[in-house]
């Protein structure tokens, strides 16, 4: 089992960067997702006071010993990209006269910004527990509850190979191991008092072997959120599907508008290789059947994430077309190596791969009228919103 934090890195010049239009913020995002970035110390000064710091609720993709880094970066048009620190990246963020600049190989490309630190982070919402240990704001206003910081697949030595949940918790321990619906209620009430941004709510967490029990816990959390806010919940419920598919109807009835069961890759043999735990506990074909069922309940609100870079484009595109025809939107997250994952030594996909994938994604989203998950000011590691808005063609 891999649980070491090994700081690696490496950068080879990618000639496909020259194909990008760096005046297009979605193209810059694509490059940063491929090549990572590093921060000059001048850009780190406000992090943790004025600027929102990264809180690692489940993964850390930073190959650095520096702990306090921004959660994300704001590019043009409010497009946001997650921080993925690589010491040898050609992209550097540094302070300039007014604000911050993003430089590529020492040349200024664009001004960038950071999201303010939410006021609720330091409020005590449950006795002795600050809010930031329960919920974390992603991007401008997507509040994420990672309900369980353990996963049955790690316990059984069958984690998804890109996942660094265990190593991240061992190293940082920045969030509570378990959250419950009372904590969800308390935190959302606090955000209502502080007035911090709250566009979306995301529920996710490690799995347990009994997927019906796992799913029921999410239903309780969704109910807590919708009761507290007095409305249905836009965002994402990311989980393994239940065996009893009627629970999917209950999740919708509880107030959730979007749901994801993540296949990660399409090819059946690769699924077994990348996600051995999911393969054994539920199985790829059953997951696809559950997605099709969900698409009949969460109409235009059912997603499955693909980890871009783990399989050839042809196979991934076959999956996108198959699922899209059945009402399931492919969400496209870009693979980033994370210290402590089995794939920590793999590289993120090159720019050429991402340009092709983003173009295809745009076709799929526009022809099926899918909405991107969250929004472009909240969704950090995916290109769905930018594809929907037509940034890639
Ligand atoms: S289901 Fe996979 S990605 Fe999610 S926490 Fe477990 S091992 Fe990690």
Mean pLDDT over the full residue set: 94
CATH architecture of the largest domain: Alpha-Beta Barrel
Task: Work out the radius of gyration.
Answer: 20 Å
Morphology call: globular
Structural class: alpha/beta
**Beta-strand percentage?**
15-25%
**Termini separation:** 43 Å
Report strand order across the widest sheet. 9-10-11-12-13-14-15
User: Class of the largest domain in CATH?
Assistant: Alpha Beta
Helix content: 25-40%
SSE pattern: HEHEEEEEEEEEHHHEHEHEHHHEHEHH
**Helical region count?**
13
CATH superfamily of the largest domain: Aldolase class I
What ligand species are in this complex? iron/sulfur cluster
Outline the low-pLDDT stretches. Answer: 1-10
**Would you tell me which CATH topology of the largest domain applies?**
TIM Barrel
The tally of strands reads 15
Query: Major β-sheet, in short?
Result: 7 strands, mixed
Number of domains: 2
Protein name: Radical SAM protein
Organism: Candidatus Dojkabacteria bacterium
InterPro entries: Aldolase_TIM, rSAM_sf
Features:
393 residues, alpha/beta, TIM Barrel, seven-stranded mixed sheet, 15 strands, globular, binds iron/sulfur cluster, Aldolase_TIM
Concise structural overview:
The protein is an alpha/beta fold and 393 residues long. Helix content is 33%, strand content 16%.
What layout of secondary structure does this protein have?
Elements: H1 25-35, E1 38-39, H2 41-44, E2 72-74, E3 80-82, E4 91-95, E5 100-104, E6 107-112, E7 124-126, E8 129-130, E9 136-138, E10 142-146, H3 152-155, H4 165-171, H5 181-194, E11 200-204, H6 211-229, E12 235-238, H7 246-253, E13 259-260, H8 268-274, H9 276-281, H10 284-297, E14 302-308, H11 313-324, E15 329-334, H12 351-368, H13 384-388
Parallel strand pairs: 1-4, 10-11, 11-12, 12-13, 13-14, 14-15
Antiparallel strand pairs: 2-3, 4-5, 5-6, 7-8, 9-10
The structure holds iron/sulfur cluster.
Iron/sulfur cluster binds near residues 206 and 207.
